[in-house]
Amino acid sequence: MNLFSKLFGEKAGKDVANALEELMKAAADGKKKSGDEPKKPEEPAKPEQTAAPEPEEYDGPSGNSWGPRMPDEPNQYNYKGTYLEYFREIFNTEFPGYTVDEEISKYGKTRVFKFKKDGKTALVVELLSQKCEAKALRAQCRRDNIPYLRYYFDYEGWWNTRSYVIERTKGALGA
Q1: Are residue 79 and residue 145 in the same domain, yes or no?
Q2: How many C-beta neighbours within 10 Å does residue 66 have?
């Protein structure tokens, strides 16, 4: 009993297997039976090309931190330093009430910032590549009931504007 028979039953399986065999022979011989050629699917209409949005049109559910062009607002790409220096500067200047410890995650090659207040971890922020599939730290934070955020430092079209990082981090801290 072949695979098609198992899937479609004995008779239908034989019919499918025979039809497939005939098509393969015809293709190998360079012959085509009339009516056997599958129709090409119609191409969907291409969306109308429009100009890239102006920076004020970047407004969306996550603020103005995404879009095809770099916004004028300070962000990790127009910062005069590395993305790590950019995030360190924001975390240390905008959140002076917290001690911010930085480490390389034990779960991978990600950078972790732990916001602490009165010796207790108030928030964990992970910086990682879009190529990274790290989920262990997020799961650990959920188990420990600690707020968790992640920012991707290399996601195309995502700018991590200063206001976005501040707003999102404040929200996670409940500030």
Answers
A1: yes
A2: 19
Print the domain residue range for 122: 71-173
Distances (CA, A) of 154 to 36, 83, 116: 48, 9, 27
Q: Is the pTM of this model over 0.85?
A: no
Q: pLDDT of 160-169, one tens digit each?
A: 999 999 999 9
- HEC assignment per residue over the chain: CCHHHHHHCHHHHHHHHHHHHHHHHHHHHCCCCCCCCCCCCCCCCCCCCCCCCCHHHHCCCCCCCECCCCCCCCCCCCCCCCHHHHHHHHHHHHCCCCEEEEEECCCCCCEEEEEEECCEEEEEEEEECCCCCCCHHHHHHHHCCCCEEEEECCCCCECCCHHHHHHHHHHHHCC
Question: How many domains does one find in the chain?
Answer: 2
Same domain? For 168 and 82 the reply is yes
Residue 59 inside a domain? The answer is: no
Q: What is the pLDDT of residues 149-158, one digit of tens each?
A: 999 999 888 8
Instruction: Find the CATH number of the domain harbouring 152.
Output: 3.40.1350
Is 66 within the bounds of a domain? no
Residue 117 to residue 148: CA distance in whole angstroms: 15
Q: What confidence tier does 47 reach under pLDDT thresholds 50, 70, 90?
A: very low
